[in-house]
């Protein structure tokens, strides 16, 4: 009952923020169990399991995942490389949480420039029984230099949203740098659309809390950076598929945009982004506790 109420609350909360989240809220309404009544077996199982589970653990352990690293550089701006920015932002976020909320344990999936497989990143979160997982990234869109702003993804399939698919494919492509990735990811091929169809039931159970965390994060990022949000979206991100707690992937800004690149590479700009991420966590923590 409590869970159902919370879902109603979060759904209406998303609608209340419809200017930013309209597309996502619409998609959520269409695919979410509380609205699904099509007799589909998976939907029914989903309903039953979701109603029996209340994934609202207090936030005691946070795993922050600096995207890319080592041979996986991520995307590049005119003078910056994603893997370096994600590491700087993640380290600053860890430090901020530890200073402000010393009771919380914060773990980074990497603390230096090294390659870590997507599966290992998720395993670090699962093995440490993290209460939330935040994967930090930078966006890039070819021939669209005017695109800017953050966007935060939860796991899901946003069919027809080409930009979400491009982003997910780009972020997932590091899988192909891993040895024997096809065995490690159950035949997953980042270049094959069929590989994106199946998602774990476990992550579905955390969908609402992931949406909450994503929404708070975007809201606070806008406040602290004064850059308009591109919203909360669903995407087929491998790293989110493998975790079993509320999980988000934050695209902090576009390295293909001059202003976003300046924001993400200056001390002042990075501090603003980190404050946004931190306040998003605080808002989520206060809500679920
Ligand atoms: Zn990335």
Explain the overall architecture.
A six-stranded mixed beta sheet has the order 2-1-3-6-4-5, with helices on both faces. It has a single domain, classed as 3-Layer(aba) Sandwich (Aminopeptidase). The chain starts with a helix and ends with a helix. With 289 residues, the protein is an alpha/beta fold. The protein has helices at 2-16, 18-31, 41-52, 82-100, 118-127, 162-172, 181-184, 201-205, 207-225, 238-241, 258-265, 267-288; strands spanning 61-66, 105-108, 132-139, 151-155, 232-235, 247-254. Helix 1 (2-16) runs parallel beside helix 9 (207-225) and helix 4 (82-100) crosses helix 12. The radius of gyration is 18 Å and the shape is globular. Strand 1, helix 4 (82-100) and strand 2 (105-108) form a beta-alpha-beta unit. It is built from twelve helices and six strands. The structure holds zinc ion. Zinc ion (ZN) binds next to loops.
CATH architecture: 3-Layer(aba) Sandwich
Strand elements, count: 6
Q: Tell me the overall shape.
A: globular
In CATH, the homologous superfamily goes by the name Zn-dependent exopeptidases
Helix content: 40-55%
- Hetero groups bound? zinc ion
* Poorly predicted regions: 1-45
Strand order of the largest sheet: 2-1-3-6-4-5
Report the total helices: 12
Could you tell me how far the N terminus lies from the C terminus, measured between alpha carbons in angstroms? 17 Å
Say what the CATH topology is.
Aminopeptidase
Structural class: alpha/beta
Measured by DSSP, the beta-strand proportion falls in 5-15%
Per CATH, the class reads Alpha Beta
User: Over all CA atoms, what is the radius of gyration?
Assistant: 18 Å
Q: How many structural domains?
A: 1
- Biggest sheet layout: 6 strands, mixed
Mean pLDDT, to the nearest integer, reads 80
**Secondary-structure element string:** HHHEHEHEEHHHHEHEHH
